[in-house]
Amino acid sequence: MLAKQWLQNSRNVMDKIEQTQMENIKKAAEIMADTIQVGRWVHTFGCGHATLPIEEMYPRIGGFVGFHPMIELPLTFFTNIVGGMSVHQFVFLERVEGYGTEIMKGYNFDSRDVMWLFSHTGINNVNIDIALESKKRGMKVIVFGSAKEAEGKQTRHSCGKTIFDLADLVVDTCVPIQDASVALKNHIDKIGPVSTMAFVTAVWMTVTTVAEILEERGVKLYIHPSHNVPGDTTARQRLEDALAEYKRRIVGV
User: Fold this and answer.
1) Model confidence, pTM
2) For the chain, what is the mean pLDDT?
3) 180-182/140-145 β-pairing
4) CB of 6 within 8 A of CB of 190?
5) 147 and 172 in contact (C-beta within 8 Å)?
């Protein structure tokens, strides 16, 4: 049954992350915790389906203030499949060198910030632009992606490097380079990609570790609560408190 095959493939990737990446996940979490503790941001960026792990962090139930999503709408797949802002334009734009440089002009950064990048192969120009600009600003760059599988792939950027080459720290998502993992009898292409499952797994392993570190340091977390639990009379206020803290940090007060 192909459903079980995909499930096993996903479990294998999750198990491999646990077996091989815990040390780097802890290192990444420590860097992020240092940034959040001093009131600064862990900025998060990706293209296409690599925006999904970004949306997992904040705002969402169980996330907490400190993670800043940088989602460029034309670079997501939450647009038209054909027509305006469609897949053709997306594939073109993520390969345009200099686009990421322009994206960075829209935000304020600090050398104490962290840039957390997501990319399966690490070769497209927008992500590399973001990494290069982040390093120019003195930020640490943390990259999650299929680093080992992507070894030997040629970057599309004139700098000659992938984002894995530029990263201060890499967490390997352990996903096969093809991503899709389930073969069909009568088709060349496989189905059932596992990179999103791997990204989300690695995200929550990291974010929960950040929370653990900050709590041990006595740092208050502004957690985005569920406000749908019967009888929880303070959830709405906790939500307002979290959003107020996010706004305070955004405006730099």
Assistant:
1) 0.95
2) 95
3) unpaired
4) no
5) yes
Q: Are 47 and 126 in contact (CB under 8 A)?
A: yes
Q: Which of 122, 119, 128, 113 is nearest to 42 (CA)?
A: 113
73 Cβ partners below 8 Å, 6+ apart? Answer: 79, 85
Quick one: which H or E segment has residue 145?
A: strand 140-145
Please name each of the domains of the chain with its CATH number.
Answer: 2-221 (3.40.50.10490)
What whole-number distance in Å separates Cα of residue 89 and Cα of residue 126? Answer: 14
Dist CA 44 CA 72 (whole Å)? 11
Distances 195 to 57, 88, 253 between C-alpha atoms, Å: 17, 21, 38
Residue 33 CB coordination number (10 Å): 23
| Bridge pairing between strands 67-70 and 191-193 | unpaired
The candidate with the shortest Cα–Cα distance to 53, out of 45, 64, 61, 42, is 45
> CA end-to-end span of the chain, whole Å?
56
Q: In the predicted model, is pLDDT for residue 156 greater than 80?
A: yes
Q: Residue 67: which H helix or E strand, with range? A: strand 67-70
pLDDT digits (tens, 9 = 90+) for 96-135: 999 999 999 999 999 999 999 999 999 999 999 999 999 9
